[in-house]
Amino acid sequence: MRHIFENLAGPGLAIAMILGLTGGGATAAAEDTLVIATTGGTWEKAMRTHFFDPFTKETRIRVITVSGTGAENVARIKAMAQTGNVEWDLYQAGEIQAASELHRSLNEDMTEFCRTYNDDQDLLPGACAPSGVLSAYGTTLLAYNTDAFPAGLKSWAEFFDVQRFPGPRSMPNFNDPWRVMAAALLADGVEPSALFPLDVDRALAKLDTIRPHISLWWKTGDQSTQGFRSGEYVAGEIWQTRASALQEEGQPLAWSQKQAFLVGDRWALIRNAPHRAAALKFLTFFLAHPEAQAKVCEALTCTPVRYSAAKAMSAKAQAASPTSPEVFDKLIRPDADWINANNQILLERWNEWNQR
């Protein structure tokens, strides 16, 4: 696996080295620092351009990023909490994970911060919530190489039909298997309205049929795109943000929003964060800049947290965004409560299947 996690065994050393270069002593440097864990790649680049660097310019608070998969970041935060040595401040939590007991145990309740925004009619409903501040909505969907499939792949049933639509595939494997199982069940004829609770046995049986054709089980967003560039696979289940970035590069890529999974990400403030005041300033900055939200979501094909930001996007970007009327009716909203309640069982069954 290609690890992009910065100094996974000890990010404190990397942070300390950076702080040492800022001058003015450790205490002063720490006050002017914010540490954000990300998943790297295209998303981090867009955030660096439109949020991190402008925030630093306005506040003189340096934003340091450490990158890893969502699962790696949460595991490291959990370890920090157990040792009492918290070194990070903010990270992106998937909206499903943000509804879990584990999330609540690791992160601050944002109710007090959100009081300021209770009457803000420009924010999407629930954008500021106890579990965190909504960053954006996106989708996990079926993407394909248009040279390999000139007529396209229109559904998960076609994705799984390697006889009619031959070619190597990729699917995610990052300790969040519900979306892989859900795609398999939809391919097997389950109606979206009957998808949850997931029939795990049926899903794994369907996955058996495509397993020999999966050339990569990707663990990071960057990994999910590399094989499209190299030709390692010609279809994959990936995040729309990554698919859009590939298309912008000029790659022969398209996607289907039919039965795509609607997912959101939230800014989570880690309990006992060392730069808590700086983190709150950043969240305020994030919510106060709809024009920057628009630029990020235009680049990544996501739905921003403010209505005014969505209106500032191009007509093309608005039409492709996950919550536009034309797209929304085709999407599947996962049952977060069921997924969190059954996550351990899902992981156990998934790991058993992977080791067969």
Report on this model:
- This protein is of the alpha/beta class.
- It is built from 18 helices and ten strands.
- Strands 1, 2, 3, 4, 5, 6, 7, 8, 9 and 10 form a ten-stranded mixed beta sheet that branches.
- β4 and β5 (132-145) form a beta hairpin.
* Secondary-structure arrangement, i.e. CATH architecture of the largest domain: 3-Layer(aba) Sandwich
Number of strands: 10
Radius of gyration: 20 Å
What sequence of helices (H) and strands (E) makes up the elements? Answer: HHEHEHEHHEEHEHHEHEHEHHEHHHHH
Give the overall silhouette.
globular
Count of all domains: 2
| Residue runs with pLDDT of under 50 for 5 or more positions | 1-29
> For the residues shown, what is the average pLDDT?
90
Number of helices: 18
Q: Give the CA-CA distance, first to last residue.
A: 19 Å
CATH first level of the largest domain: which class?
Answer: Alpha Beta
Main beta-sheet strand count, sense and barrel state = 10 strands, mixed
> Strand share of the residues?
15-25%
Give the arrangement of secondary structure elements.
Layout: H1 11-20, H2 25-31, E1 33-38, H3 41-59, E2 62-67, H4 70-83, E3 90-94, H5 101-106, H6 111-114, E4 128-129, E5 132-145, H7 156-160, E6 169-172, H8 178-187, H9 200-210, E7 214-218, H10 221-230, E8 235-239, H11 240-249, E9 253-269, H12 276-287, H13 290-300, E10 303-304, H14 307-312, H15 315-320, H16 325-328, H17 336-341, H18 343-355
Helix pairs in contact: 3-13, 8-9
